[in-house]
Amino acid sequence: MPDEYRGEALAMREVRDRLRDSDLDWTVFCPPGMIQPGEKKGNYRLGTTSLMFDAKGESAISAEDYSDALVNELETAAHSRAQFTIAY
To answer: Would 42 be classed as within a structural domain?
Structure first.
């Protein structure tokens, strides 16, 4: 992990751990390595706690597909009290 992101990543891990130890209903949705505007493809993969990569070694998603997955989670709550991630 690049040093410039390490502090933020460790802080978010602490937040997740505190949520896990609480009685709250929570979800942590982690983006892939790259998220940027693009097209909505609708064919992405969901994972759990590990950064996901495609066959080219890229960890990416369009903002459109990321927001689609976020809305789906809000509507279905498939990852209650869990962390999940997304990538192509």
So the answer is: yes
**Which helix or strand (DSSP H or E) is residue 56 part of?**
none
Residues whose CB falls within 8 Å of the CB of residue 88, separated by 6 or more in sequence, listed in order: 41, 43, 44, 45, 54, 58, 60, 61, 65
Listed as ranges, residues in the chain with pLDDT below 50 are none
List the structure tokens of 30: 């982690």
pTM: predicted TM-score of the whole model, two decimal places: 0.86
What is the domain range of residue 74? 25-87
> Would you state the pLDDT for residue 5?
86
Helical spans, DSSP H, in 1-88: 3-20, 63-76
Q: For residue 6, is it within any domain?
A: no
Q: Could you identify the residue written with the tokens 């706690």?
A: 49
